[in-house]
Amino acid sequence: MASLNITMIFNLFLTISLLHLIAARKLTESDQLLKFQYHKGPLLTGKISINLIWYGKFKPSQRAIITDFITSLSSPKQTTTSQPSVATWWKSTEKYYHLTNNKKSANLALSLGSQILDENYSLGKSLTTNQIIKLASKGQQLNAINIVLTAADVAVDGFCSSRCGTHGSSYGARVNGKQHKFAYIWVGNSETQCAGQCAWPFHQPIYGPQSSPLVAPNNDVGLDGMIINVASLLAGTVTNPFGNGYYQGPKEAPLEASSACTGVYAKGAYPGYAGDVLVDKTSGASYNANGVNGRKYLLPAIVDPKTSACSTLV
């Protein structure tokens, strides 16, 4: 009799656990509606160069992972790139422009600009936000997005504790008597500092549901993690470059085009599970987008402003 009661209790517990799991999955899979508000500010348009400021030591092979990604965003080779592609992922940001009735949106064209190497840590190995802006200002400031990338041994205010990267804007030098704002992004290499937070799902998470990490598509946990954050922040930068574009929530901590979909990379995603991503048969690496030079990347979902849900490539 006691054995029967134990069996019944176990079966009841198992049933309740499964119901909770199914409910959690459905909650995520339904992609809770994300009502974005347009705050009437400008979106980035025209020909925009993406300049890279490398702070600290990066191998040439590591820099190539980032530069190939930037080139893949609007590569003329996109017609020959295998689908799903990085260019197709990026094209989804155009929906934000269409909602503003901005006829210039078709002219938004990103290209890889200049690269600045600061391998000698000119500002030290512990940086403040103001120092990040100072580094970003070294790049071209007109019609540009300047991305500061810090090496694995560089600490930045708030890195790991509250952020994996950030984007913003600052006033640059005067050009023809006028002072213009330029957009910037900062992303850190988290491999040795907090890979479980900023390079998930390529590393065991530091909290939440525990699952086996995925194989990084470029065989570099730190750099493949940086790609995820660069991609997310680029989407946020073009759709909310100066803090008055598209976002949800408070201006000081907004949810933007991609940051609102944290942890979602493919259909079927739920907390602790990236989704049904593609897997390379040879390397076993997980990805959802193809880039130039045979590259593969894992890119975050972007909110579709028409459906108010996270949209993925696969």
- How large a portion of the residues is in β-strands, by DSSP E? 15-25%
Strand order of the largest sheet: 3-2-5-8-7
The topology string of helices and strands comes to: HEEHHHEEHEEEEHHEEEEEEE
Largest sheet: 5 strands, mixed
User: Which stretches are low in confidence, meaning pLDDT under 50 for 5 or more residues running?
Assistant: 1-31
Structural class: alpha/beta
The chain-level mean pLDDT equals 86
Shape: globular
Distance between the termini: 51 Å
The value of Rg in angstroms is: 21 Å
DSSP helical segment count: 7
Say how many strands there are.
Answer: 15
In helices, the fraction of residues equals 25-40%
What do these coordinates show?
Residues 1-31 have low confidence and may be disordered. Helix 2 runs parallel beside helix 7. The protein contains seven helices and 15 strands. Helices cover 27% and strands 22% of the residues. The radius of gyration is 21 Å and the shape is globular.
Short structural summary:
It is built from seven helices and 15 strands. It has helices spanning 2-29, 60-73, 86-91, 94-99, 129-136, 195-198, 221-239; strands spanning 37-38, 47-55, 109-118, 126-127, 144-150, 155-156, 165-175, 178-188, 246-247, 278-279, 286-287, 289-290, 296-297, 302-304, 309-311. The strands form six sheets. It has a five-stranded mixed β-sheet with strand order 3-2-5-8-7. A two-stranded antiparallel ribbon has the order 1-9.
Task: List the defining traits of the structure above.
27% helix, disordered N terminus, 7 helices, two-stranded antiparallel sheet, five-stranded mixed beta sheet, 314 residues, alpha/beta
